[in-house]
Amino acid sequence: MTSNIRSIAFYLPQYHRIPENDKWWGEGFTEWTNVRAARPRFSGHYQPHSPLEANYYDLTDPAAREAQAELARQYGVYGFCYYHYWFNGKRLLERPFDEVLRSGHPDFPFCLCWANENWTRRWDGFEHDVLIAQKYSEQDCLRFIEALFPAFRDPRYIRVKGKPLLLIYRTGLLPDPKAATEIWRDAAYRAGIGDLYLVRVENFIDRPEPEPAEIGFDAAVEFAPYWISRGQPIRNLREADGPDVLLPDDLSVYDYETCMNNMMAKPLPPYKLFRGVFPCWDNTARRKTRSTVFVNSSPVKYAYWLSQALRHTIERYEGDERLVFINAWNEWGEGCHLEPDEKYGLQYLEATKLALQQGELYAELRSLAKKPGFDYEEWYKDLQAAMPDLLGQVEQPTLHLRAFANFVQSVNMGIGDLQAEGSIYDQVRKRDELIAQLQGSLTWKLTAPARKVIEKLYLAYLKVKDRSLEKR
Questions:
Q1: Strand partners, 337
Q2: What mean pLDDT comes out for the span 215-235?
Q3: 19-72 pLDDT per residue, tens
Q4: Model-level pTM?
């Protein structure tokens, strides 16, 4: 039994030279150029974000791509969503993905997101200085989708309900999105691919957007950080539970925890919305000045947020529509990456894996609750009594512990029949084996409370099991 949840990380196919960037930004430019040059702007500012063991890879190197896929797989990331750059028939940063497609390696799931924005000198503060523009037309709509057919036919391509999953970054920029989707779907049918599963990226909302179905889309994905949920800017780190540090006037600084709480608390729309999370964010490397920084982030808070996104997904969706999106795998220039860095090492990846494992357990418990023949009310009373006792044993429960407590205290969850004993026991055993393999103090902070919760859960189950047997 698995939850069927698929965690998909946005993937930037940069980190290699292209002639256009040599012309626009200087000879030899890659994203690493910005990352290496970043400097802290205030006391305690975490910059630069340096990859662990100076892993400044080149994405034209097949070994680098294989290593990324292996690392992602090891920590539970299901697949990558590659940004796709198409400008009226002109593609940019296409080589890494084209080589993945052509070579068949790495053997790791993927999908595409058309990043349909103009490229400008926004990094230099000249947003209206367009380097390459989007030019939309019906003819280009057709050429765009036909160019994706080889990817859609690849067995590694991520599908939902048997349909290739395609994301569009900014549907609001399309002159007629519904007409575009009709062209795309018709072309895919005629090519023998079948229907498409179209998802709009939802973030750039300064006015109400139509529901996905109204513009020919199947669903939306919550892009994180969701800018309207970022909260009020702060002028001193004290406002985010930090030290007394006055912040530079040109920076837009926000509290990660506030954004996290706002995104979790915002009303859910009536349409299908896949949840999104981000581990951290700081685009100082790209912007130099006038950058946006989220302070007060940590692997523990990210783990809590991801666990809540997983819970929401398990409760609302079934089958292969259980998707959660993480921004991002490797947005180093935006300080937004799961890939290990010198400060945190593997901690964000460890947090990802642990949250996903908790999601698996939660999904299993919900499934067992549907089975007949078990006194659910008695079991739930015992579990409710056990949880406060557990929380009382921890002087300062971590966000991660509270996340797991939220998982196991859902009113819709229970254990179904006496066959559950082996399953829960296996979960405890597997978690112990995992802990024995992992290193780092943060991992112990994350796993020890969760392990105690599982043990309490198992003891509560045994207690009710014995009571049920006594009644027979």
A1: 330
A2: 93
A3: 999 999 999 999 999 999 999 999 999 999 999 999 999 999 999 999 999 999
A4: 0.82
pLDDT of residue 372: 63
Upper half-sphere CA count for residue 403 (Cβ side, 13 Å): 30
8 A C-beta contact, residue 405 and residue 387: yes
Residues 87 and 139 sit within 8 Å (Cβ to Cβ)? no
Residues 254 and 125 in one domain: yes
Q: How many residues does the chain have?
A: 472
Maximum separation of any 2 CA atoms in the chain, in Å: 80
Residue 171 lies in a domain: yes
Residue 402 domain-assigned (yes or no): yes
Do 295 and 420 belong together in one domain?
no
- Asked whether residue 329 falls in the same domain as residue 435, the answer is no
Indicate whether 326 and 436 sit together in one domain.
no
Structure tokens at 440: 């780092």
Q: Are residues 175 and 217 in the same domain?
A: yes
Q: CA 255, CA 393: separation in Å to the nearest integer?
A: 29
362/414 Cα distance (integer angstroms): 10
Task: Tell me which residue range forms the domain holding 27.
Answer: 6-338
Beta-ladder partners of 111: 81
Distance CA 398, CA 298 (A): 12
d(CA 322, CA 309): 10
